[in-house]
Amino acid sequence: MIAKLTPAERSELLPTLPEWAVDEGRDGITRKFAFADFVEAFGFMTRVALLAEKADHHPEWSNLYNRVEILLTTHDAGGLSRRDVDLARAIDALI
Ligand code: HBI
Questions:
Q1: What total number of domains does the chain contain?
Q2: What is the rounded CA–CA span in Å between residue 75 and residue 72?
Q3: For residue 4, how far is its CA from the centre of ligand 1 (angstroms)?
Q4: Model confidence over 10-40: pLDDT tens digits?
Q5: What is the mean pLDDT of the chain?
Q6: Staple partner for 2: which of 40, 49, 77, 89, CB 3.0–4.6 Å?
Q7: Residue-level pLDDT at 46
Q8: 4 lines ligand 1 (CB under 6 A)
Q9: What share of the chain is helix, strand, coil (3-state, %, to 5)?
Q10: What is the mean pLDDT of residues 72-88?
Q11: Phi, psi of 29, deg, nearest 5
Q12: Is residue 1 part of a domain?
């Protein structure tokens, strides 16, 4: 069972992800990306997909032409877990 982040862990970890906003309703974190064009956006999504597979942790995301929006939450935990923080950090490293 994957544990949700405790309030203390959230206070410690979320400030290290300043580009990500907390979605209180979903108990997840979101970030919006804009690229030069669709091809760049899709290339980014391909790289994220490979990270997700490697982590066995998958984003909820949408793409509109050159824009990608990602929500990270842990279904098995019913909210934000360390897996979301780790994947967000790995995604940030792609930018
Ligand atoms: N991705 N976001 C997210 N949340 C999960 O709980 C999750 C996942 N990817 C794979 C996964 N769980 C598997 O571990 C379980 O479906 C078995």
A1: 1
A2: 9
A3: 13
A4: 999 999 999 999 999 999 999 999 999 999 9
A5: 97
A6: 77
A7: 98
A8: no
A9: 40, 25, 35
A10: 98
A11: -125, 145
A12: no
The model's pTM is 0.96
Pair of tokens at residue 47: 């790289």
Query: Domain containing 62: what range?
Result: 7-93
> What spatial distance separates the first Cα and last Cα of the chain, rounded to whole Å?
31
CATH number of the domain that 82 lies in?
3.30.1360.20
Tell me the C-alpha distance between 37 and 25, whole Å: 30
77 CA closest ligand 1 atom index: 6
Q: How do 60-64 and 67-72 pair as beta strands?
A: antiparallel
58 lines ligand 1 (CB under 6 A): yes
Q: Give Cα 78 to chain centroid, integer Å.
A: 15
CB 73 within 8 A of CB 28: yes
